[in-house]
Amino acid sequence: MSRITRRRALGVAAGAAAGLAAARTVAAPAEAQAAPARPGTGPAPFDEIFMGRRIQGGPAHNTGGHHGGHHGGGHTNGYSVRIDGEELHVMQNADGTWISVISHYEPVATPLAAARAAVRELQGAPLVPLASS
Amino acid sequence: MTVRKNQAQLTATEKKRFVDALLELKRSGRYDTFVSTHNDFIMSDTDNGDRVGHRSPSFLPWHRRFLLQFEQALQAVDPSVALPYWDWTVDRTPRASLWAPDFMGGTGRSRDGQVTDGPFAASGGRWRVTVRVDGRDYLRRSLGGGRELPTRAEVDSVLAIETYDMAPWNSASDGFRNHLEGWRGVNLHNRVHVWVGGHMATGASPNDPVFWLHHAFIDKLWADWQARHPGSGYLPAAGTPNVVDLRDTMRPWNDVTPADMLDHTPHYTYDTAA
Question: Do A101 and B32 touch (CB under 8 A)?
Fold first, then answer.
């Protein structure tokens, strides 16, 4: 299951690679402005190495099959975040702020900020699919 | 009759029996079903979609029912046990007896957040975190983290809010429920999760047994609010899409409504008058 997820993530990463430099320059000001998503415009995509880990965010293409359909879209604006290729469950609040399953009670301005907060909190630990083990 | 007491007032025997019952629920596998249920709801409750356990009016009756079910599971192990509550406006530092090795154990070590003392330390071999979102299977905390727990004055300012909840019935709402939950205003419930840190800051927060003590106090604050505003009731009353109205049933039980949960006294009382 994680293998499939990773392969899918790599495919997305390859597609995003061309726009990587642009995404980096766009991501920083987007976070600084803390601009909530307006209808029809999702938050900026990003793809960066943060504290030694690859964090990616962008429109969710896809995807059936992973992590058990916990939500029916809408609240993420179809946005998906990955850390080292594994999906981080994120959610957008009504005021435009974001949280993740790693930091669920402390909203931040953007999905990039949520990804970075998760990396800090993980202290190097891998994300695992959202299931008991 | 079950009497829920302030955790600071528990005797050594009461603490031991509570901890032992927690460890037995954990050993039997029952404990982790509560963690799974909570995480499932926290990930599926959304501001613009169906919402039951969080960010919605039913946050309070849902958690009241959830705690009752958990308390009944504890009492099936030891009938003398009741859920204690943690008044974090008073016991507001990592030096509180709550965090002593004979009860919850203390904060995590800086290297990896691991709790290293008390009954739930990984080294004791009795508290492996199995329902989790990352690879770490030990209980983690980071008490404080540069933040302050809510003060009594902040609690009082929220208890003074007369209206239970308001449209749009989510994390953007004005009203008592959302200020108590913490998505808006001075932030009570959410901030305490963040203050504890580690698992308490995640969707799988019941992995930390202090979850129950925190929510028992939130539940008591609901009772305190009801006593202060006898003319204010649960809202919304009926016909609200995606939201649990007063007489709608709540998942996952499907046989209990907010109306059934408004009065806690058939189930338990508190050590102080609400």
Answer: no
Question: Angle, to 10 degrees, between the axis of helix B30-44 and the axis of helix B59-77?
Answer: 170
> Which two three-digit tokens encode residue A131?
């299931």
What are B114's strand-pairing partners? Answer: B140
CA A131 to chain B, closest CA, distance in angstroms equals 6
In angstroms, rounded to a whole number, what is the distance separating the alpha carbons of residues B22 and B209? 8
Using one digit for the tens of pLDDT, what is the confidence trace for B171-206?
999 999 999 999 999 999 999 999 999 999 999 999
3-class DSSP state of A86: strand
Q: Which residues of B fall within a CB distance of 8 Å from A94?
A: 47-48, 168, 170-172
Pairing of strands A127-132, B2-4: unpaired
Q: Where are the alpha helices (DSSP H) in B53-188?
A: 59-77, 152-159, 176-181
Sign of CA dihedral A13, A16, A20, A23: negative
Task: Report, in angstroms and rounded to the nearest whole number, the Rg of chain A calculated over CA atoms.
Answer: 14
Chain A residues within an 8 Å CB radius of B170: 94
Tens of pLDDT, residue by residue over B91-126, are 999 999 999 999 999 999 999 999 999 999 999 999
- Dihedrals phi, psi of A53, to nearest 5 degrees: -125, 145
Consecutive H or E run containing B244: none
> Residues B216-268: pLDDT tens digits?
999 999 999 999 999 999 999 999 999 999 999 999 999 999 999 999 999 99
Q: How many CA atoms lie within 13 A of B27 on its CB side?
A: 12
